Amino acid sequence: MDSVSKLYSVFTVDAVTLPALQDSGLGILGTQTWSADIDNPVNKKFVADYKAKYGSYPSFYAAQAYDTILAIDYAIGKAGSKDADKVGAVLSAGNIPTTRGNLKMNSNHFPIQNIYLRETVKDDDGIVTPRIVETVFEDHADSYAKECTL
């Protein structure tokens, strides 16, 4: 009898690699801080707009880039100027709207965020994509923040 082990990856199986893997990617488990199926308005709009334009799911990298622009826009708007100190203070305060939800920032300026276990499945349209199985860490904070001198 053949023994089969599931493949487990971290930050490697997503919309970048799945087009090449297709059905051979089904069942792969992995962790990530973002997923196309996170249920919040910002993420739903991002994923829908991306799929409408490109015909596929966005990658984590696309979500990160989108979040970066959202964060900059939010910080400048809330600060009322482009002054770096004011913008930095807004970002440090957190509550930044992103595809991952409203992010809080740790004392070392790393995000406090969820980490999800995802499994690669076929969606209702037959597209191979990761879906959240469970939340591994909720509001996970960088464990080295206390050692940072910022």
Describe this structure in words.
The protein has helices spanning 18-21, 41-54, 60-79, 84-93, and strands spanning 8-10, 29-32, 96-98, 101-105, 111-122, 128-140. It is an alpha+beta fold. Strands 1, 2, 3, 4, 5 and 6 form a six-stranded mixed sheet that branches. Helix 3 (60-79) packs across helix 4. The longest helix has 20 residues, at 60-79.
What proportion of the residues form beta strands (DSSP E)?
A: 25-35%
Instruction: Briefly note the structural class of the backbone.
Output: alpha+beta
Q: Helical stretch count? A: 4
Topology, number of strands: 6
Shape: globular
Largest sheet: 6 strands, mixed
Q: Which residues sit in consecutive blocks of at least 5 with pLDDT less than 50? A: none
The rounded Rg comes to 17 Å
Offer a quick outline of the entry.
With 150 residues, the chain is of the alpha+beta class.
Structural key phrases:
150 residues; alpha+beta; six-stranded mixed β-sheet
What is the element layout, followed by pairings?
Blueprint: E1 8-10, H1 18-21, E2 29-32, H2 41-54, H3 60-79, H4 84-93, E3 96-98, E4 101-105, E5 111-122, E6 128-140
